[in-house]
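Assemble and predict.
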Amino acid sequence: ATSASFPPFTRLPHEMAAAESFLAFNPAARPGPAAASRRRYRGPRNRKKGWKRWSGPEAQLGREIGDFLEDVGLQERAAGGLISEQIFGITPNYSPSKIFRIIFGFFFFCSICAHQTPNGRKEKRRRQFWEKKAEKGIFPREERKLRARLNREGDPKKSPKSQKPPELGRFCDPLSDPLDAPLAGQDPWFLQQTKKMPVQRPPRLQVKPSPLPPVEVIGQGGSYNPPFQDHQVWGGFGGSWGGIGGPGGVLRGFWGVLGEFWGVLKGFEGGQVQAGHSAAPGPVPAALWAGSGVTRGHSVVTPGHSQDNDKARSRLVTLQHQALFQLRSLRRSLRFRDLELRRRRLLRERRRKILETAPKRLGRQRWGLGFWDLGFGPEGSVLRDRFKSLQRRNLIEPRARARSGTGKKSKFGGKKQKFGAKSENLGGKSPNSGGKKFKFG
Amino acid sequence: MGGLEKKKYERGAATNYITRNRARKKLQLSLPDFRRLCILKGIYPHEPKHKKKVNKGSTAPRTFYLLKDIKFLLHEPIVNKFREYKVFVRKLRKAYGKSEWGTVERLKDNKPTYKLDHIVKERYPTFIDALRDLDDALSMCFLFSTFPRTGKCHVQTIQLCRRLAVEFQNYVIASRSLRKVFLSIKGIYYQAEVLGQPITWITPYAFAHDHPTDVDYRVMATFTEFYTTLLGFVNFRLYQSLNLVYPPKIDSQAEDELKPAEGKEYAMDSESYLEKLSGLSASLARAVAPTHEDEVEMDEFPVEGETAELMDAKKKEQEALEKHKKLFEGLRFFLNREVPREPLAFVIRCFGGQVSWDKSLCIGATYEATDPSITHHIIDRPHLDKQVVGRYYLQPQWVFDSVNAKLCLPVADYFPGVLLPPHLSPFVTEKEGDYVPPEKLKLLALQRGENPDEESEEEEEEEEEEEEEGDNDKEEEEDESEKEEEMKLQKMEEQKTQSTQSNKVLPVKVTAGKVRVEDKQRLEQEQQSEEKRLAIMMMKKREKYLYKKIMFGKKRKIREANKLAEKRKAHDAALKEQKKKKKKARQA
């Protein structure tokens, strides 16, 4: 009864299995759904939107499952259920491995769909990492902030809001603004935002941008009646005057360091060496010099000693002598190394300080040696001097003044610009639209 | 696949900075207004560490400000005033264009103004903060007060600067807080100590003014605007601290003295008051009359952690300071008319001297040139025809050099027509190893209380009377001293080079009696040099290189110092030669 009800175009299971490898000779014949999955996918042709394409082994599986499901749907639509189940209970034509593949593939596909979260693995790792940290009591920044806020809110001292109703029975000034009264003791931030209180200047603004002194006193050579040697300094004996390397210049620090170092070295050369000679090696040289004299004397006076003894002693003496020299030179080199390190540290510190005080480059102009030559020579105007000093201390940006003669603008352009500028304070709109508004309105 | 896309320039340094143009737009100000606001509020541009990052990959030169700073500016009430002013200007222009003179009048009456008081208070929370920033303010005010009134900036500004500068000068005189003066080619540097803070400022010479073109006058005027406000507050506070009346008034007693005797009025009283003040010759009125108490000695409590030595040193310093403050006390100066009056009057009055000038020169002259009590007459011309006995005629440099030396220098070097000693800077202190000019050495000796050239001076006087012999004598002496100097220099050089040369031959005498001693010495020397040679040999290459470099530098320094000294010697010799020739010519 059942077989009679089959529509004629429904394929039987064995037919279905055969259809997998079946292709009609008719050129117009469409390949079956199975044929589609057989075509190997070669990846995106034009390499565009590759991330959208579905490729790889799971894609193949998915496609197979799709084919399968399509087939099942077809059968169900046509026959009201799987034909194989209806007839045999299980499809004999499918190999068990194929069945397994189909079923496993299906579940795998489902599992993939369920876990497609971006950066899933990374996120998982991160979660694990923070779980481990949380055990130690370390939390991520967000959480820390939240906790801190919780703590703050719990603290009654720090909460600024302690609004009490205005006390009654007190003297009330009839002329004062009643709205001002409850302002006392309120949150300063609120008051600042509502313009009831001037905004405090942040402490970082109290620091000057440059530690250079406001008035740099000119060197000796700038005196109106300079001493003789300063004529030499300014007149080219020193080679560099003004600018960074000149007297009072930035680089002066460097030479200062060198000078100090020479001073240190001089002390080392003069004082310490002598001290080392007299005191430090102590007993050795005394014994040495005294001993040698004594031995010689002995050898002359009493001939009873054997020559071997003498030789050995002299060898010992020379050895001692050499050892002593080695020790001394070692100590010397150590001390020298110390000195060198100290010098380097000094230099490093000084360089850092110079870099700190040196003007930063704020504009188009670079701070070179030539930049200051004009401003800080012995002659010149005080006005320019002050201006350069302000620039040098980073109080204003260093810029060459735009000359008024260059770049003549047409009358029309100038006028247009004016309108734009005016419109700006009308309502902060774009210059063009504002200008139009102004013109017509 | 993969989460939210990270956008560039939305975090990190790029968000902390804002370009000048964006800041300007945010504040709705024009560029000049924005500049002015930044200067007034003390907001400075910042150079980001990674400019390219902040500039969104572009390398275009832009000025950056911190976003926080600009947000802070948003609260400033002055911003609104700037906008109002812009509107005012627009309305005014419109009214002018339409020739609506009534509207113009009305607008003029309602011109928006702003005050900077709150900014001063905000920028300088304590008085000491304000004092620390006074260097700039003073320099600017003194500079602007010398500007010609030709329209480079407002005349009111110039007048205000003049007033404030004079007020400050009067304070320095009253408190005697001036410490150093240095006359440079550019201008005069002063240093005063106000409430323990050293304050240095420069004043240009009067009338010597060229207008540089590469200076933005608008920027300078804005700075001056702020600094005048600051200086006004500071002056008020300083006057209060000295119990003086502010605005300053001349002491009534002094005012009587100042009144012109003939009854001819110099100008209207109200007009000439500032000029009288700027004469700097009269003392100021006090709010409460000073009561001359017996000087009470304060009990001194030793501060913990201070040793007796330190205390002693402090006490000595204090005494020296007191002495310095009273340097010109009891002296009466008269300034000839060719002498720069203001700086000299200021300096002399700062150290307790009395000063006057020709009454046609400036208002405020207290006595005339014929006054017999004058002790010092400052002139700046080669010679004066009618000299009065009983006073020194000196060149102006004497005053400044004496102040810097903290003692009244011998007057002989400063007589009119005499070649002056160099004017040394009190702001320079020579380090060890630097070349110290002989003048400075002399000065130091004088300060120590020695008198190095007393004899030679005497001799000089003798020499003028009896020419030949004295001259010879002196020359010989000088020659000797020069030789000594040379020897000294040689010795110095030897000492310094000795340490570098490893095997130096030393002059060793062999005498019969002292063989033993000499030998010992030589042995020692040998050992030393041997040691040195070994040490150098043992050094690493790098160290050796360094060592040689240092030694070379040291030698060079000595060489340079010697060169300077030699040049100086040649210079002196040439001078002397000239003198001699002159003398011979005079004789012949």
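Chain A touches chain B through 79 residues (CB under 8 Å).
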